């Protein structure tokens, strides 16, 4: 399940629940330059999903922040 939010200025993000052996939350953010953000972060954070092409024609990656939250970034 995912809940999407869009600000009046156009910023968007989504909150989703990932179900499996353990359920957890993930915040997803839309960014314009996802490849550049990936290059800046990939060696500095714990990577959950490396940058990949999604079936719907976008790119996405997911990391874990210092508090253990999952953060997804996509275009």
Q: Provide the helix percentage.
A: 10-25%
The radius of gyration over CA amounts to: 12 Å
Number of strands: 6
If you average the pLDDT, what whole number results?
84
Oligomer: single chain
Largest sheet: 6 strands, mixed
Low-confidence stretches: none
Characterize the overall form.
Answer: globular
Kindly name the structural category: mainly beta
Our estimate of the beta-strand percent is over 45%
Q: Element order, helices and strands?
A: EEEHEEE
Strand order of the largest sheet: 1-2-3-6-5-4
Q: Span between N and C termini?
A: 19 Å
Count of runs of 4 or more consecutive helical residues: 1
Provide structural commentary:
- The model has no long low-confidence stretch (mean pLDDT 84).
- Helix content is 11%, strand content 51%.
- Strands 1-2-3-6-5-4 form a six-stranded mixed β-sheet, covered by helices on one side.
- The longest helix is centred in the middle third of the chain and has 8 residues, at 34-41.
- β4 (46-53) and β5 (59-64) form a beta hairpin.
- The protein is mainly β and 75 residues long.
- The chain is globular.
Structural key phrases:
single chain, 75 residues, mainly beta, 6-stranded mixed sheet, 11% helix, globular
Set down the secondary structure blueprint.
Layout: E1 2-6, E2 12-18, E3 24-30, H1 34-41, E4 46-53, E5 59-64, E6 70-74
Parallel strand pairs: 3-6
Antiparallel strand pairs: 1-2, 2-3, 4-5, 5-6
């Amino acid at each position: 399940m995912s809940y999407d939010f869009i600000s009046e200025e156009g910023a968007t993000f989504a909150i989703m629940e990932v179900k499996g052996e353990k359920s957890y939350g993930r915040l997803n953010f839309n960014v314009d330059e996802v490849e550049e953000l990936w290059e800046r972060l990939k060696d500095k954070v714990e990577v959950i999903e490396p940058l990949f092409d999604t079936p719907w024609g976008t790119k996405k990656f997911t990391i874990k922040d210092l508090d253990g939250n999952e953060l997804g970034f996509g275009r």
